[in-house]
């Protein structure tokens, strides 16, 4: 495909970062007082600075992965991925979730011609078969956690997928035909996004096709790369979907009360248009639903139609834009013709930014087509005389890129924000999706909601779905706490590596390493509580320690200097533990991801946040900005060599302090380290409660202030 279709593909993730920033910018002021109070309550590290700053990239990468985890890869460093801009971005986004993303080497020698027996293949077997040209096509499950393959010999098999960002790349390179299963479940994409988004971004065309598949019902087949190109040319009338009765009401949409309130007016109007027109009130024609992916914009639009009892027409704007100039415009015409004949009704246009970008600012090619399409849309909307009863709802992730002509009075002059849900909202969304599922009595949605900051409605729905699948696989009659915890873990960290055996020696190493992270994290004042430690290898990670950033922290996106310093110390905890137990000469490469994180944080603090007295309060690098494609995440700082030297030494100083603090803490609490590691070796997983018990039993010494007086800060667990 080409650059034009790659464009919409870049939107969702980019938005994730940007929207967080925008939200944060807005909330910074109001969040500050609460934050300050909290700081007083927990601050005890003898750090007087109360400098709280909005840190763009941290907020962004935390937004990309709601549960922070320290993950460690104990694979040889030779596996390092090339540092393309995309790879760097991937690495950054991944690191918030699971450390570095190195793929563990698969060294077993196997006859390359032999296909595995049976109809469930291990992932490594599958990859080998793909590389050997033995796989003809694959069909991803909608949630992206598994796929069905057809081998060249016609055999079919099922594969459970880890979180492998390279998968799509590998498949494409080996000429495997890719499709996405068209289940009957709607909107179950969260984990497909999680698992596959990055590679899909690299293959914009694929993503485009994928979006088409999402269109579902109306869109028709997704039979491989060819589906929906020029062949669809004549079928312009099938490009929108008409639902006479959506059957969705506001009850089905939870946690977005503000948006519902605003849309209630639209419902009202559709129900009693006369009431409004008699008074001479101007009827809204268009309303823009703005918010991150999966927050229920489509669902809300359907609910408006459902509440008002009017038909629902929908289409994705990206589908308007085809290869031929003029097709989009004619599709818009078709759509509105049909809608007007069924008025009153709702027309819903998803991803309006795909056609509605500021005109004349696009990236080469395809502009004419887009401009014509958007012009047609404007013409249609202007053409509604007085009261045709057609109300257009449009959804976007990127209101900032929209053509201002779209936002003028009489067009999309209202904006309704559909934001990510807060705890209370998440509880209610979970309850909505628990309907029709058998949920065990031990499941506490309040707890689940607290562990899922940053999850959208779609992600929560997916979570419950995964849990249900797990319960079925385990032959249970109801979904228990366990399945939800496992599903959550799987979504956040990728599926546990099947059959990966660790040598006793390595296991000990990983156990101590993770225990080191956990202990430093738990004993550090003003740091996030430990919710889980695991040495079950999953994805690329040999071990993981999960921390739950507070709601407030995620919401505000504000990170104090203390917090960042603590975070660096926590990251150092792994290596420090290895060193103390196994000796400096035996430390491993398992900490490479930790070190990357530490250096990144330190550099950012110095270069962008004005945390260095020697550098002063200037941003040497303005960082991030709006670029995604071609964002050179690392290099290109524009300052002199002399300044660079100061930066380097300042970074080094920060890292050294972090190391020393971690080492002091672990040394002080070496018994805790042994105890936690022992339990880990025994059980492989420790949850927050158990961790707390172990720490209490081992009489963890509290954090020491500079003057060596212990500070009365209880360690924190979830
Ligand atoms: N607030 C919510 N309450 C209940 N369910 C929700 C909510 N938000 C999302 N969901 C679930 O997630 C699914 C997908 O959401 P939907 O397609 O409406 O999101 P969207 O905001 O339109 O996403 P996108 O921007 O990716 O199109 C819905 O069908 C619904 O099952
Ligand atoms: Zn580590």
How is the secondary structure organized here?
Elements: H1 3-42, E1 52-54, H2 56-64, E2 68-72, H3 85-98, E3 120-121, H4 123-131, E4 135-140, E5 146-151, E6 156-160, H5 167-173, E7 177-180, H6 190-202, H7 204-215, E8 241-243, H8 257-271, H9 273-278, E9 286-290, H10 297-308, E10 312-316, H11 327-341, E11 345-350, H12 353-356, H13 367-383, E12 390-396, E13 414-417, H14 423-434, H15 445-450, H16 457-473, H17 481-493, H18 504-523, E14 530-534, E15 543-547, H19 551-556, E16 558-560, H20 561-582, H21 592-607, H22 641-668, H23 670-683, E17 685-687, H24 688-697
Parallel strand pairs: 3-6, 4-7, 9-12, 9-13, 10-11, 11-12
Antiparallel strand pairs: 1-16, 2-15, 4-5, 5-6, 8-10, 14-15, 14-17
Helix pairs in contact: 1-2, 1-7, 2-3, 6-7, 8-10, 11-13, 14-16, 16-17, 18-20, 18-23, 20-21, 20-22, 21-22, 22-23
Bound molecules: adenosine-5'-triphosphate and zinc ion.
Residues 186-187, 253-256, 293-299, 350, 395, 429, 432, 457-458, 461 line the site of adenosine-5'-triphosphate (ATP).
């Amino acid at each position: 495909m080409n650059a034009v279709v790659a464009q919409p593909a870049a939107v969702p993730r980019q938005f994730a970062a940007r929207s967080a920033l925008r939200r944060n910018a807005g909330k910074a002021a109001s969040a500050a007082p609460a934050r300050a109070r909290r700081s007083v309550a927990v601050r005890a590290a003898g750090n007087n600075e109360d400098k709280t700053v909005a840190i763009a990239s941290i907020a962004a990468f935390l937004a990309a992965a709601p549960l922070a985890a320290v993950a460690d890869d104990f694979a040889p460093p030779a596996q390092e991925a090339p540092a393309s801009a995309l790879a760097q971005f991937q690495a950054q986004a991944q690191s918030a979730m699971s450390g570095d993303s190195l793929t563990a080497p698969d060294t077993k020698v196997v006859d390359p011609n032999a296909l595995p027996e049976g109809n469930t293949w291990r992932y490594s077997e599958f990859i080998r078969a793909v590389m050997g040209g033995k796989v003809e096509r694959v069909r991803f499950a909608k949630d992206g956690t598994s796929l069905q393959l057809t081998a060249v010999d016609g055999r079919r098999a099922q594969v459970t997928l880890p979180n492998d960002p390279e998968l799509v790349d590998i498949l494409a390179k080996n000429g495997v035909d890719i499709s996405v299963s068209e289940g009957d479940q709607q909107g179950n994409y969260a984990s497909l996004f999680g698992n596959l988004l990055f590679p899909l971004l690299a293959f914009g065309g694929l993503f485009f096709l994928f979006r088409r598949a999402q269109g579902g019902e109306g869109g028709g087949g997704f039979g491989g790369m060819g589906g929906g190109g020029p062949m669809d040319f004549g079928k312009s009338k099938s490009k929108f979907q008409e639902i006479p009765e959506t059957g969705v009401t506001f009850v089905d949409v939870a946690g977005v009360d503000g948006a519902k309130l605003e849309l209630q007016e639209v419902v009202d109007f559709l129900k009693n248009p006369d009431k409004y027109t008699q008074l001479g009130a101007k009827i809204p024609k268009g309303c823009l639903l703005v918010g991150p992916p999966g927050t229920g914009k489509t669902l809300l639009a359907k609910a408006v139609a459902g509440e008002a009892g009017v038909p629902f027409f929908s289409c994705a704007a990206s589908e308007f834009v085809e290869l031929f100039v003029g097709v989009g415009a004619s599709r818009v015409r078709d759509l509105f013709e049909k809608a007007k004949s069924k008025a009153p009704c709702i027309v819903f246009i998803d991803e309006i930014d795909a056609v509605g970008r500021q005109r004349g600012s696009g990236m080469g090619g395809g502009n004419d087509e887009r401009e014509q399409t958007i012009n047609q849309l404007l013409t249609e909307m202007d053409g509604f005389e007085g009261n045709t009863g057609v109300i257009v709802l449009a959804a976007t992730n990127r209101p900032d890129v929209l053509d201002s002509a779209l936002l003028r009075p009489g067009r999309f002059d209202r904006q309704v924000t559909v934001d990510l849900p807060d705890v209370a909202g998440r509880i209610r969304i979970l309850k909505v999706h628990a309907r029709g599922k058998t949920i065990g009595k031990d499941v506490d949605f309040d707890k689940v909601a607290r562990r899922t900051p940053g999850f959208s409605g779609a992600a929560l729905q997916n979570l419950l779905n995964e849990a249900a699948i797990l319960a079925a696989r385990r032959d249970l009659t109801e979904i228990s706490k366990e399945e939800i915890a496992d599903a959550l873990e799987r979504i956040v960290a990728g599926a546990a590596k099947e059959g990966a055996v660790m040598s006793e020696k390595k296991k000990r190493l990983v156990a101590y390493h993770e225990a080191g992270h956990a202990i430093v994290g738990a004993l550090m004042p003003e740091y996030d509580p430990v919710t889980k430690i695991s040495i079950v290898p999953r994805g690329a990670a040999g071990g993981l320690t999960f921390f739950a950033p507070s709601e407030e922290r995620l919401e505000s996106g504000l990170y104090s200097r203390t917090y960042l310093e603590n975070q660096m110390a926590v990251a150092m905890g792994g290596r420090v533990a290895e060193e103390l137990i196994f000796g400096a000469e035996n430390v491993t490469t398992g900490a490479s991801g930790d070190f990357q994180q530490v250096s990144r944080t330190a550099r950012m603090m110095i270069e962008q946040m004005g945390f260095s007295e020697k550098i002063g309060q200037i941003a040497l690098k303005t960082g991030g900005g709006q670029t995604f494609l071609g964002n050179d995440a690392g290099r290109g700082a524009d300052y002199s060599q002399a300044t660079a030297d100061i930066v380097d030494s300042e970074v080094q100083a920060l890292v050294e302090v972090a190391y020393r603090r971690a080492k002091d803490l672990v040394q002080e609490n070496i018994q805790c380290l042994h105890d936690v590691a022992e339990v880990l070796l025994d059980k492989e997983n420790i949850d927050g409660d158990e961790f707390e018990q172990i720490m209490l039993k081992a009489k963890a010494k509290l954090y020491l202030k500079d003057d060596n007086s212990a500070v009365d800060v209880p360690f924190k667990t979830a």
